[in-house]
Amino acid sequence: MLFAAEVEIAADNRPGFISVTSDLSAATITVAATLPVTTTLNANGQVVVTASDYIQPLGAASEFDSGGGELSSIHKSAALFEIAQKVHAQEQALPADTQPNNLTVAIDLEAGTAQIDATFPITSAIGANSTIVLSVVDYL
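Below the sequence we write its predicted structure tokens.
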């Protein structure tokens, strides 16, 4: 969704903060995203990190509609950040001896960025009009 929104932006103005590649031989898809973030302190002195909406000012549609799902983000950058946090938490909740490390999230407060790197197992199939359909396999 965020990758598709970046594609809407004119090529000479496209930030390229997200890349998606697939390897059909290895049956994996890899996502790398560098999201601009802002930080604040809440009333308890805890750092709160929020993904910034960087695509709307560049002319791309940025609104996010969860469709009644459990995400609460209002724009696509925040939705990707929220999904990454949820997947990371599910990975960490598994027993240490079986815990996968398919996704990492690194916050750089100095640069004001969140780096998300993920590699997920996929299946591929031929869809309508001979398109390739990739589906992420539930590995958790």
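The first strand starts at residue 18 and ends at 23.
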